[in-house]
UniProtKB/TrEMBL annotation:
It comes from Streptomyces lavenduligriseus. The lineage of its organism: Bacteria, Bacillati, Actinomycetota, Actinomycetes, Kitasatosporales. This is DUF6049 family protein. Keywords: Membrane, Transmembrane, Transmembrane helix. The chain crosses the membrane at residues 696-715. The keyword Zinc-finger does not apply. PROSITE patterns: TONB_DEPENDENT_REC_1. InterPro entries: DUF6049, Ig-like_fold, TonB_box_CS.
């Protein structure tokens, strides 16, 4: 029964109203008691059985102005077990949100049907469904003039799309599902516009190994063909370029990505195989790489380009675990120096190189020190790391002088993280865009003071994340409360004197990020590889063929992209070091077997082999006797000779030795660089010395004497026989004796000169000269080993 106050001209007395309320309370007491005895889970079960999900797939325009028509589309899905009848999708406009925290609160409960979102816009702007069967999704699309939404003051409004209906178990109309989002309302230009810088990161993972081929082009080897997939139409990097070309953004580029694509564009690249070999990359990917580079060159023309150090080194890992390892910071300096050259060569633009970007903008004092050690005096941080402590009622400008001539350019954390997570579904992407725009407008509404705000999204957005980012930036460009600005201009803007400039200590660094830091052992391995490279490069005639690919590979060892992939990072570092070891081992000493010396002096050859295709030099070969009292080399314990060898050849280096006693002596051959560092493994072999004794000489002398006596006897016998011949033949024959007639003809009975006796043009071989241990040096290739181009 209606109260008297519900009728015009009547009024109930206070006493009567009190009696009615008391009676209603007594009547409802048993009902209340019964409700209190119901199981607590009953309401939750009822709600879950009636649940309907609402997906807001599209809301255009994202930031409407006067005269626009707002179009909302999406799907509703009955997740319950009962059909929903008398259902309709309606639009709801909630209250104006006045703080950034209010926006966060609505976003946390965006699909809770128990929360209110104002009243529906009206029956005219709804879509009805006679029945929603369980498990069935229905599409909807509703258009409404903006002036029908009841938007009053400029600002951010809560906006919802709700499905109302009833079920057989609960046959009364109610909201069964809702999706809340935000509607930024700034119909005319704001009096003061926020200057907004949006970074457009163009980075990828590590793709190239340290290996290159033997030709003049040094055919590169890739870990896999994933880069080609990213560059192909529809790929992540292809979309980043296609979307970014029309946006007012600052491009942030890893030079390693450009170098990798450029290497692929040249053609004839190879792909690493599981068995350690490599296979040719598809030829059609060369055209894909060329097309992508051409599109990127056009996209960045006239835009600001910031080049990160080569391969985007992990500044946090370097600061936390690398600075104690000698030489680690030099790699960061090297990566910074090569960045500008790479970008200018490939893109034909001069980049800015004085910005450092730690992962997620998280900084501490050690990171700031490392980030600026290579010459960068501006560090991109984030507001959840460099938190405000002065209680400012507004978001301050990004630039913060932190001392020592360094500027921290602080990105807004809410705006920068708006596009993280899975945005492959249209509903998730739409919500991300609307939330971003709402936060941006709320920042502008905080104060009339003009500020510069930085947005630094995740380093490697997915294709769907990039699409959402592009939609948000386009809405800002066409909006009425912001204006675009380059990163350099934002860094130079006047800082807010009340903004915090205190860099947090290392203890404040997020534990989740610290777990992903490269360990100290990684930097120790990098230092070991660098030392090997320094030793190897000294002997090369063309150092660039080795120093450049290995130098870039060492930069990639430190890449930020290895975070969360520790096993893959270790495998890559192991591969770089193993390949360097294999190359260095192409210049080595050939093993020798035992050498015998039968005499007091002789020469010992030692062979050095070069299986590289380029000549090597600046090497010294040392041969050292372990027992110089028994065997001297070059008149002392050891002797050294310089070594230079053509590519693909071997060279025998001969050492003069002198023996002082019989016996076996171990001899060590070792290569050194000219600066005195050992190169390669030594070769040890035995030299067996056998001296010629007096007894042996007596035996030899006796044999020679017997031969002489036998020859003399033969001569005298023949002489006597010749003397008797004239007596038998008569006078005529005797007259023809050359000894008496002087005939120069050869005497018939004269013995010829003994072979091997006397002095001839060639000296006889001496017993002390042994046969050479190796063949003489040849100008032809050695034929051993594989030619390796370094």
């Amino acid at each position: 029964m209606a109260e008297a106050a519900d009728f015009q001209g009547t009024s109930a007395s206070p006493a009567r109203r009190w009696l009615r309320r008391a009676g209603a309370l007594l009547t409802g007491a048993p009902l209340l008691a019964g409700l209190l005895q119901l199981p607590v889970a009953a309401p939750a079960q009822a709600a879950s059985s009636d649940s309907v999900s609402v997906s807001l797939d599209s809301l255009t325009p994202s930031a409407p102005t006067d005269g626009d028509t707002l179009t909302v589309s999406g799907t509703v899905t009955n997740n319950g077990k009962q059909a929903v009848t008398d259902a309709h999708v309606g639009l709801r406009v909630g209250p104006q949100l006045t703080t950034r925290s209010d926006i966060d609160s609505v976003a946390r409960h965006s699909d809770d049907p128990q929360g209110g979102t104002g009243s529906e816009v009206g029956d005219k702007y709804e879509e009805k469904f006679d029945k929603l069967a369980p498990g069935v999704a229905q599409h909807f699309s509703i258009s409404v003039p903006v002036d029908k939404l009841g938007l009053d003051d400029e600002g951010v409004y809560e906006f919802g799309v709700a499905l109302s209906g009833e079920t057989s178990a609960r046959p009364w109309p109610r909201v069964l599902g809702i999706q809340r989002t935000f509607l930024p309302w700034q119909p005319s230009d704001a009096g003061t516009k926020t200057r907004t810088t949006f970074l457009w990161p163009l980075l990828s993972t590590v793709h190239m190994t340290a290996k290159t081929g033997a030709g003049d082009l040094q055919t590169p080897e890739f870990l896999n063909d994933d880069l080609a997939k990213e560059l192909a139409p529809g790929g992540r990097l292809a979309q980043m370029v296609d979307l970014g070309k029309d946006l007012d953004v600052t491009w942030v580029i890893d030079p390693d990505l450009l170098a990798s694509v450029d290497a692929m564009a040249v053609g004839n690249y190879r792909l690493q195989a599981a068995d350690g070999t490599s296979t040719p990359g598809p030829r059609e990917h060369q055209a894909v790489a060329k097309q992508w580079l051409a599109a990127l060159q056009k996209a960045v023309a006239g835009k600001e380009v910031v080049a990160l150090p080569f391969a985007d080194p992990d500044l946090a890992s370097l600061a936390h675990n690398g600075t104690s390892v000698t030489g680690s910071l030099s790699h960061l300096k090297d990566a910074t120096d090569v960045a500008a050259t790479t970008v200018k060569t490939v893109l034909h633009v001069t980049p800015t190189t004085d910005f450092a970007w730690p992962v997620d903008g998280a900084v501490d004092r050690s990171i700031m020190k490392v980030a600026t050690s290579a010459g960068a005096d501006r560090v991109i941080a984030r507001s959840d790391s460099l938190q405000e402590t002065a209680g400012l009622p507004y978001t301050p400008s990004a630039a913060r002088p932190v001392g020592g001539g360094t500027t921290a350019v602080v990105a807004d954390s809410r705006l920068s993280t708006a596009f993280e997570g899975d945005l492959t579904k249209a509903g998730a992407a739409t919500l991300a865009v609307q939330r971003f725009l709402a936060q941006s407008l709320e920042v502008n509404s905080q104060t009339d003071k003009q500020r510069s705000i930085l947005v630094a999204p995740q380093r490697m957005p997915t294709a769907s994340q990039a699409q959402a980012m592009a939609a948000a930036v386009k809405a800002l460009q066409g909006g009425t409360w912001t204006q675009p600005q380059d990163l350099t201009a934002t860094a130079k803007d006047k800082p807010d004197p009340a903004a915090t400039t205190r860099i947090p200590p290392a203890s404040a660094y997020p534990a989740s990020l610290r777990k992903q830091d490269l360990p100290r052992t990684a930097f120790e391995q990098i230092a070991r590889t660098q030392a090997k490279l320094d030793n190897f490069r000294v002997i090369l005639s063309d150092q660039s063929r080795v120093v450049t690919p290995f130098g870039r590979a060492i930069n990639r060892d430190m890449s930020t992209s290895w975070r969360g992939h520790r096993g893959a990072a270790e495998g890559y570092r192991d591969g770089v070091e193993a390949w360097l070891d294999e190359l260095a081992d192409q210049v080595k000493l050939i093993d020798k077997s035992e050498t015998k010396l039968s005499g007091r002096s002789a020469t010992i050859p030692v062979t050095v082999q070069n299986n590289l295709v380029q000549p090597v030099g600046h090497l010294v070969l040392r041969l050292e006797s372990t027992m110089p009292t028994r065997l001297e080399i070059g008149g002392k314990a050891y002797y050294e000779q310089p070594v230079e060898i053509s590519g693909g050849h071997s060279q025998s280096v001969k050492f003069t030795t002198s023996a002082n006693a019989n016996g076996r002596v171990a001899v060590i051959a070792q290569l050194y660089t000219e600066d005195g560092r050992k190169y390669g493994e030594p070769v040890t072999f035995d030299v067996k010395v056998t001296e010629v004794t007096p007894t042996v000489m007596l035996v030899i002398g006796g044999g020679v004497l017997l031969l002489v006596l036998a020859g003399f006897r033969m001569y005298t016998q023949r002489k006597r026989a010749a003397a008797r011949q004239p007596e038998d033949d008569g006078p005529d024959t005797a007259a023809k004796d050359p000894d008496e007639s002087g005939n120069p003809g050869a005497p018939e009975g004269r013995l010829p000169q003994e072979s091997g006796s006397g002095s001839g043009a060639d000296d006889p071989e001496q017993p002390s000269d042994p046969a050479p241990d190796t063949a003489p040096e040849s100008a032809d290739p050695s034929g051993t080993g594989e030619r390796v181009d370094r």
